[in-house]
Amino acid sequence: MEIIRLTEINSKAYTDFLQQSEHTRFFASDEFRRLLKSYTESIDYYFLAIENDEIVGALPSFIKETPLGNCMNSLPYYGSNGGIIEHAGREDVRAALIAEFLNTAKAYNCLTSTIITSPYTQDKSIFAENFAYDYMSKRLCQITEICEKDELMDKYHYKTRNSIRKAEKSNITIQVENDIDSMHFLAEQQTVNMKRIGAVPKEASFFKSVEETLNAGVDYNIINAYLDGHRISSLLLLYNNKTVEYFVPVTVDEFKTYQPMSLIIYFAMQDAWEKGYKYWNWGGTGLTQKSLYDFKKKWGSEDYDYFYYTKIHDKSVLDMKQEDISANFKYFFLVPYEILMNN
C-alpha cells in the first residue's frame, strides 16, 4: 500500500471510490475540493491510499499558509466534514492515512492540524491511537431520511405539516431557478438575515465561486418561493451521491409568517427523492441553538455526533490572540479559543 496525492489525473477514480458508499457526502467530493480551492486560497492535499492500483482509502484536507504560521484541516469552511473515507473497516489503511496527514502537517510546519469526522464515522479509537490528538470536541448534526411524498408528511411534526399547509393556502409558488438573479438574491438576503441576528454572513465571493466551479442542476439548485410574483424566500442546496445538503436558506423578514421556507423544503425533499437521493443533511447545530435544533427535529431528523480532533504541533499557538487567529486563519480551525492564554 502507498499513499499518493489526488490530482486531476486520478480525480475520476477518486469520485468512483466515493460512490462505493451511500454515506459519502458533498464535502468529500472533488467538486467541493475545487470550490474550496477557489474560495479559500489554500492548498488542497487529498491523500489516497492505493493498493493493487485501486483506491482503498482517502483523507481530504487543506493547508492554510499565513504570516502567523500554517495549519491543516480535514476539512475547512464552517465545519465541513472531512475525515477518513474507508469502506472495508481496515485499520491499517486508516492508520496509514493519518500518519501521512501528520507527516505533511509537520513538513509544512503547521501550528496545528485538525480532522473533522463524518457523522457516520463509528471508530473513534483510531484517532486516539494514531492521531494522539490534544483536544477533542463533539458536535451535532441532524439528518432526515427522505422518502416518497405520502410518507414524508407522516415523518413531520404536526406543526411542520401546518406550516406547509399555510404556505400552500397562501398561494405561494415554488420554482427551481439557477440563474444569476437568483444567486444574487440569495447572497444579498442572507447578508441581511445574518447581520440581523449578529452572525457572520457568507461573502458574495462564495456565491460567485459556486457559480463558477459547480454545475447548476447537478451539484446545486436554488429553489425560490414567490408570492404574488415577488420572490420572498430562497434555498441553496448541494447534491452528491445519496445526500442533499441544506446549505443556505433565506427569507425576507416581512414574509416569514407565510412559511415559504417550509414549502420550499417540502418541495425539495420530494424532488430529491424522485431523483434518487436518500438523505437530507441539515448540517451542524450548536448545542445551545435549541430553537434551530427543534426546527430540524420537527422534519423527522435523527441526531448524529461528529468530532473535531486537534493536534498541536507548536505550542506557541496558545499565546496567540483570538482576533489575530480570526483574521489570518479565515475559514480554518486552528485551536479552541478557550485554551488560548490571552483569551
Description:
- There is one protein chain.
- The chain has eleven helices and 14 strands.
- It is α+β, with helices and mostly antiparallel strands.
- A hairpin with a 2-residue loop joins strand 11 (230-240) and strand 12.
Report how far apart the termini are: 44 Å
For the biggest sheet, the summary is: 11 strands, mixed
Q: List the uncertain runs.
A: none
Quote the beta fraction.
Answer: 25-35%
* Major sheet strand order: 2-5-6-7-14-8-13-12-11-10-9
**How large is the count of helical segments?**
11
- Structural class, judged by helices and strands? alpha+beta
* Bulk shape: globular
Q: How big is the Rg?
A: 21 Å
Quote the average pLDDT: 95
The portion of residues assigned to helices is 25-40%
Strand tally is 14
H and E order: EHHEEEEEHEHEHHEHHEEEHEHEH
How would you briefly describe this protein structure?
Helix content is 34%, strand content 28%. It is α+β, with helices and mostly antiparallel strands.
